[in-house]
């Protein structure tokens, strides 16, 4: 074959990205069928590379390639015509070839031809005894070669190739991992998952750049990956900014990490990226025979999440971290059922006491979850997960409804307590939150002033203008508002002056430091004075000793809340506590 045609043929082969890919059951079915049909021990899908014949699939051989020189499949690829060698020992050219010297006596191969006429290699069958072949058998072999090409075209179709990169996509990776799982001998493998950018960074890129520029970035990454890993294995483009790739060999994790560091440095230093990105790579060391493809994929995603938090941008898959991610997923998956059940979610209430009068006029509603299989779940674990999910709306609606139901029971017993309920930043972005809140009050015959809505500084500042608008409408409707965890966020004085809040709750971390020295007490006193000067009533959280309570009273704090008063109680127990415990506390302070 001429030089120009050979260059085009090799380019066509390279573009299909078949060389050095994982074994595939889709191709193995055909080679097994060929060997069975001819009743011969060896069959192969053989691809003709520059200097070798590489077997995408084979039956009866342990190696996956032989030299191209004097390989019959090379002649088939070059000529695009079938070739039959009845007896190697009688063929002057192939007698001393690699196959001839290995004891092969019979060969029959038909070409694998692309739609544009390039021969990729051959579907071949081999035997260790001389043999003839009928015209019907050769026709069957040709038909089966066409089936191989159909499979190649299928894998290279839109459903298996990412258009922007030309790389195999997520579906092809899952397919290849499935084949590896079935055929693995238990040898560990290393995989990496490259994530070019955080979601927010990719969103900025998408807004600032045209699709053509984004495709250019992807092509640059493909070039870098091919230079580092593409010569020995094919990368996969499995997401808008994510690329997966096997280690070129079975080296140690340390060697692989060093190579990945070089990849990251090259990406970060590339002038082809017009905006700053922070690429990360998660590494997975796994046994393909023992790990399902979906678990491999999920574990890679877990590792790359850890890599985003690493100062190196690289992280090895951690079983402990993965267990935490899987637990988080389980909690989110089970939370909707918890909302519907009547024996999982429940409220407890922690009282707030006026430090001057000793009266308890308010309490904070706190959510608890008793999971049917995992037991009691800490609010610090599940509430941040839910608030960052699509269930934040349902969570707040449930807490408001249940709080108002308990308040109705208290009113019927002659106790009128104000309840404080925590909102999330997501609630401030809900255009119908005020309407839902007022509707809930109406259902339970409650007044807006019966409820105090707590929001952290960070939540208020996340969408400052939108939050301020909603808070003003809530205040106008009569609801009470509190700034929770005061001192831990980043509120500015100018913004605090605009907030229609009634209460500031000083975070427990500052209260715990009261006993540490004068500087800590000065800080808390300043926070109380500042809040009073802005018109806020001050509540101190996390009060655990009488000494703390006395200090806060001396500083002018209005209310206290914490374990020194009481741990969170059920609705009935809180009423009992008010009846019997509050009076004794007042006597103690007197």
Structural notes for this entry:
The chain is built from 21 helices and 20 strands. The chain is an alpha/beta fold. It has an 8-stranded mixed β-barrel with strand order 12-13-15-16-17-18-19-20, surrounded by 5 helices. Strands 3-2-1-6-5-4 form a 6-stranded antiparallel sheet. Strand 2 (52-59) and strand 3 form a beta hairpin. The longest helix has 22 residues, at 319-340. The termini are far apart. The mean pLDDT is 87.
Question: Summary?
Answer:
By secondary structure, the protein is of the alpha/beta class. The chain contains 21 helices and 20 strands. Residues 328-582 form the EAL domain.
Instruction: Count the DSSP helices.
Output: 21
**Gross morphology:** elongated
Q: Note poorly predicted spans.
A: none
The amount of helix comes to: 40-55%
What is the overall pLDDT average? Answer: 87
Backbone structural class: alpha/beta
CATH topology of the largest domain: TIM Barrel
Q: CATH superfamily assignment of the largest domain?
A: EAL domain
Number of strands: 20
- Taking strands numbered 1, 2, ... along the chain, how are they ordered across the largest sheet? 12-13-15-16-17-18-19-20
Report, as a whole number of angstroms, the end-to-end distance. Answer: 106 Å
Radius of gyration, Cα only, in angstroms?
Answer: 35 Å
Largest sheet: 8 strands, mixed, barrel
Q: In the residues, how many domains can be counted?
A: 3
| CATH architecture grouping of the largest domain | Alpha-Beta Barrel
Determine and state the CATH class of the largest domain: Alpha Beta
């Amino acid at each position: 074959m001429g030089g120009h045609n050979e260059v085009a043929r090799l380019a066509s082969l390279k573009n299909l990205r078949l060389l050095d890919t994982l074994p595939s059951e889709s191709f193995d079915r055909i080679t097994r069928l060929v060997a069975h049909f001819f009743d011969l021990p060896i069959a192969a899908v053989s691809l003709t590379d520059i200097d070798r014949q590489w077997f995408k699939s084979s039956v009866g051989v342990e190696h996956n390639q032989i030299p191209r020189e004097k390989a019959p499949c090379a002649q088939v690829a070059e000529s695009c015509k079938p070739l039959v060698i009845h007896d190697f020992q009688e063929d002057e050219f192939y007698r001393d070839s690699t196959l001839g010297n290995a004891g092969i006596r019979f060969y029959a191969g038909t070409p694998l031809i692309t739609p544009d006429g390039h021969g990729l290699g051959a579907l071949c069958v081999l035997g260790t005894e001389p043999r003839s072949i009928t015209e019907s058998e050769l026709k069957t072999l040709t038909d089966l070669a066409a089936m191989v090409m159909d499979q190649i075209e299928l894998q290279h179709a839109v459903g298996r190739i990412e258009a922007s990169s030309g790389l195999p996509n997520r579906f092809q990776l899952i397919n290849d991992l499935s084949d590896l799982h079935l055929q693995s001998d238990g040898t560990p493998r290393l995989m990496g998952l490259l994530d070019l950018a955080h979601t927010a960074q990719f969103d900025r890129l998408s807004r600032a750049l045209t699709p053509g520029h984004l495709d250019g970035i992807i092509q640059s990454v493909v070039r870098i990956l091919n230079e580092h890993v593409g010569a020995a294995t094919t990368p996969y483009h499995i997401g808008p900014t994510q690329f997966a790739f096997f280690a070129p060999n079975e080296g140690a994790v340390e060697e692989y990490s060093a190579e990945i560091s070089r990849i990251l440095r090259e990406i970060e230093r590339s002038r082809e990226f017009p905006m700053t990105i922070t690429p990360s790579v998660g590494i997975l060391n796994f046994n393909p025979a023992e790990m399902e493809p979906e678990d491999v994929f999920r574990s890679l995603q877990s590792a790359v999440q850890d890599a985003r938090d690493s100062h190196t941008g690289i992280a090895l898959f951690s079983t402990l971290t993965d267990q935490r991610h899987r637990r988080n997923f389980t909690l989110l998956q089970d939370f909707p059922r918890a909302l519907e059940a009547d024996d999982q979610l429940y409220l407890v209430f922690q009282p707030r006491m006026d430090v001057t009068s000793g009266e308890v006029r308010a309490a904070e509603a706190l959510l608890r979850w008793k999971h049917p299989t995992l037991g009691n779940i800490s609010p610090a674990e599940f509430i941040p997960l839910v608030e960052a999910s699509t269930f934040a709306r349902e969570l707040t609606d449930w807490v408001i409804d249940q709080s108002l139901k308990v308040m109705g029971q208290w009113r019927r017993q002659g106790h009128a307590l104000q309840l404080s309920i925590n909102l999330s930043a997501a609630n401030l972005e809900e255009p119908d939150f005020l309407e839902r809140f007022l509707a809930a009050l109406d259902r339970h015959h409650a007044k807006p002033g019966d409820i105090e809505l707590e929001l952290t500084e960070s939540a208020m500042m996340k969408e400052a203008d939108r939050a301020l608008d909603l808070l003003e409408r809530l205040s106008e409707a009569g609801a009470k508002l509190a700034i929770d965890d005061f001192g831990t966020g980043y509120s500015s004085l100018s913004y605090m002056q605009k907030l229609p809040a009634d209460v500031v709750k000083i975070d427990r971390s500052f209260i715990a430091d009261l006993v540490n020295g004068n500087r800590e007490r000065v800080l808390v006193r300043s926070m109380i004075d500042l809040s009073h000067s802005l018109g806020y009533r001050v509540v101190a959280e996390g009060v655990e000793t009488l000494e703390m309570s006395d200090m806060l009273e001396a500083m002018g704090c209005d209310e206290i809340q914490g374990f020194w008063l009481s741990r969170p109680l059920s609705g009935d127990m809180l009423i009992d506590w008010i009846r019997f415990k509050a009076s004794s506390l007042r006597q103690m302070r007197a």
